[in-house]
Specification:
Layout: E1 4-6, H1 9-15, H2 24-30, E2 38-43, E3 46-51, H3 58-68, H4 72-75, E4 79-82, E5 86-87, E6 92-94, E7 98-101, H5 105-110, E8 119-124, H6 130-143, E9 147-152, E10 157-161, E11 167-170, E12 175-178, E13 182-188, H7 189-192
Parallel strand pairs: 8-9
Antiparallel strand pairs: 1-3, 2-3, 2-6, 4-7, 5-6, 7-8, 9-10, 10-11, 12-13
Pfam family, one: Uma2
InterPro entries: Nuclease_put_TT1808, Restrct_endonuc-II-like, Uma2
Protein name: Putative restriction endonuclease domain-containing protein
């Protein structure tokens, strides 16, 4: 997760005009495949613009993918995917930094059926807003996500949520687990930030 703003927000500040709403179909047509260094999410008709994962943050994907490839889920065909669209409701399309999908979900995704990842990872930047982070966390769990990790690279800690009210804060040698989504994926905060 990086700095967020609505596409129309800059214009809105200057002219006091509310962001223009766009349909889900238009969002999918015009924003899902943009290659401009940003990722876009659709929130009840408003397009939210975020910086994509940068090279420094891609380290987390690299490390987690290496761990994932040794899990039982990977051995039977599950996949860890970076920045792909995931509908969390009829009003929201999110693009988590990293998401795990089961072997059974992948063919459905590829045929255009929305699937909700059991495990989602968001790399939190210093520019993210706490209220937006918490709203998105609630969305993920309402959609059926089982585990959400918030990685805070500046403070070298990971918040591991198994519900919006249940969180384990991992620092130093404390182990971060992707259970119950992936019971055999674990890493200490110390290793993740090494």
């Amino acid at each position: 997760m990086s700095t967020s703003s609505t596409v129309e927000e800059t214009k809105s500040k200057k002219t006091s005009v509310k962001p223009r709403r766009v349909s889900k179909e238009r969002f999918l047509r015009e924003y899902t495949n943009r290659e401009d260094g940003y990722k876009y999410e659709w929130n009840d008709g408003v397009i939210e613009k975020y910086e994509g994962m940068n090279q420094e943050q891609s380290k987390f994907y690299y490390l987690l993918l290496g761990l994932f490839l040794n899990t039982a889920a990977a051995k039977i065909g599950g996949m860890l995917i970076a920045e792909t669209d995931m509908g969390t409701s009829t009003e929201q399309i999110r693009r988590p930094d990293i998401a795990y999908y089961t072997k059974e979900q992948l063919p459905m995704m590829w045929s255009g059926q929305n699937q909700v990842a059991p495990w989602v990872v968001e790399v939190i930047s210093i520019n993210d807003y706490a209220n937006k982070i918490n709203k998105k966390l609630d969305e993920y769990f309402l959609a059926g996500v089982q585990v959400v990790w918030h990685i805070y690279s500046e403070s070298k800690q990971v918040h591991v949520f198994t519900s919006p009210e249940q969180v384990t804060i991992c620092r130093g040698k404390r182990v971060c687990s992707a259970a119950p989504a992936l019971g055999d994926l674990e890493i200490s905060a110390e290793e993740l930030f090494a």
